[in-house]
Task: structure prediction
Amino acid sequence: MINIKLMSREQKIRLKLCGKYLLSNSKSDNFEKYRNKKKIIVALAADYGNLGDVAITYAQTKFLKDRFPTYEIIDFPISETFTEIKSLKKICTTEDIITLVGGGNTGDMYDDIEYCRQFLIQQFPKNKIIAFPQTIDFSDTDYGEKALQKAIKVYSKHRNLTLSAREEKSFKKYEELFKKNKVVFTPDIVLSLDESLPQYKREGITLCLRSDGEKFLDKVTELKFIEKLGENFDIFYQDTHIDKNRMSVQERIDELNKIWDVFKKSRLVITDRLHGMIFCAITKTPCIAIDNSNRKISGVYNGWLKDSNYIELMKEINIEELLKKADFMMAKDLSKLNTISVSQRFDILI
Result:
């Protein structure tokens, strides 16, 4: 019987990874066809049920394919980080570029993903590595401090690692803590997409709300708000998390198209998920975004979306104010929504 208390941090994380991502046995020569080609690796590719992370992986891959057509863009799923690393390293040269999938998992809340990130950085010490736009969030605890110091140690040893932040708070933290790495400030890569077409008839309000540790809206307030909202509007429910793991690339695209269609058919989306807000931005869907516990929603909103006339941010929770905003947004003229463009802000990544 395994005594979890006696396990090291790394052993516990590996155990967590086995349960979360269903690690499989190596398929050996999985990447052999890419051996003599110029390559960009999309490492930590999300093949699990967080559609925000799946969208980041999809957008990052598309971004690289569009801008670097002479390179092979290789999807390297997080579930294969350890089982396929030898196969990947066999066909990579120091001229190949490693990109790490962006997101909100640089920290100790999602320490399994951070562990995989550090592992990959250590595996490619001579390659150019670019970490796509992230939120950094190490907790103010002993565990969080230890995890941060480990990250600083691993990141700082790599002399060609670029870190990108998707909101100002993370950008300042990166600059302060990772002085030996290049740091840049860019939008979340999903904002490079335009998924506004095709257009559908819009009706009702879709709620896309969290149920995890980042949730800021307490359950009692949430239920009261939903009850009041349901008195005047049709309510639908959609989460950015689905119960799937080890999805193929095509399965990921299919799931993204499903949720984007749900948003495009909604008159209004109310969400406390960052990518709930971002999905509204790229599908041109009216949105009320409620800030989450680590304030990454307000950070991304203030950095890139504050000039939108169809996305409203709420930092503090008040039922009456929420209801007023819902009425206001439901009455908005959909023909007069402005267009958000942040495409030039990605040039620094190129």
Summary: The first helix runs from residue 9 to 21. The longest strand covers residues 128-137. The chain has a mean pLDDT of 91. The two ends are 50 Å apart (CA to CA).
